[in-house]
Amino acid sequence: QVQLVESGGGLVRPGGSLRLSCVVSETTPGYHAIGWFRQAPGNEREGVSCISQGGSATDYESSAKGRFTISRDNAKSTVYLNMNNLKPEDTAVYFCAASARFYSPSYCDLETYEYDDWGQGTQVTVSS
After folding, report:
1. What is the longest distance spanned by two Cα atoms in the chain?
2. In sequence order, what are the residues at sequence separation of 6 or more whose Cβ sits closer than 8 angstroms to the Cβ of residue 90?
3. Helix (H, G, I), strand (E, B) or coil at 90
4. Of 19, 15, 38, 20, residue with least CA distance to 92
């Protein structure tokens, strides 16, 4: 089982930035693809971004493209989500999750059912 711990959430004004971190405890560093998801009150959990096992492939939800950047440092067992130009609609609890289901180490997607292990989440609030 993979253990994931998120940090870096907080309160930020519209237009501001945050960097979320996800520390991944896995037997082999970098073995899992990692996704970032978010859930706002009353909404379903949705995919934001993912990064493949080796880090060569990434994917972003449409509203995140151009504003968010995902990266991973396998030496530190950490995946980052840099979020810029934040908007009130980005307010949600952000979760990271791990998947070993993808057929290729150079692939990931944002389907929640592909991810088996989840962190507890970190709150991001964008408000003036």
Report:
1. 43
2. 38, 83, 124, 126
3. helix
4. 38
Torsion angle defined by CA atoms of residues 11, 8, 5 and 93, in that order, rounded to the nearest 10 degrees: 30
- Separation of alpha carbons 30 and 79, rounded Å: 10
Backbone torsions φ then ψ of 88, nearest 5 degrees:
-55, -30
Bridge partners for 51 per DSSP: 34, 58
How is residue 66 written in tokens?
Answer: 């151009």
* pLDDT tens for the 128 residues of the chain, in order: 899 999 999 999 999 999 999 999 988 888 999 999 999 999 999 999 999 998 899 999 999 999 999 999 989 999 999 999 999 999 999 999 999 999 898 999 999 999 999 999 999 999 99
Q: Residue 58: which of 113, 110, 5 has the closest Cα? A: 110
CB 35 within 8 A of CB 115: yes
Q: Are strands 122-126 and 10-12 parallel, antiparallel or unpaired?
A: parallel
**Cβ proximity of 7 and 20 under 8 Å:** yes
